[in-house]
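quick one before i forget lol
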Amino acid sequence: MTEIVATLVYSDGNENNNINYHILKTTYYEADPNEVTGLNVDALKILFSPDTAISCENMKIQEWDAALYKTTEQCYLCWTYSPEVSYILEYNPAAVSDEEVIRMAQSAKSVEN
């Protein structure tokens, strides 16, 4: 089961220019989380359907597997930190460049508990 545990909104006051930073948490009841390697595409389906994206560019965000999905209206830069945690930066490509969002994701730091 995957849920959105937090959404941070970066805004300049114009809602069309928002960057939504979604943090997803996946709980495994019977499945083995160690079987999930790479980008957890199943977790992403809570926000959008990766299968309907008009393009997908695979990449790395730091050492994590990532992909930039583009739909007709929104872009989703997604990466998986661990089988239990994935991140999505959702943005309007007319307002924010892909390069700017990728730089933002590359600056992410892991937090030690």
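fyi The domain at 2-106 is CATH 3.40.1000 (Protein Transport Mog1p; Chain A).
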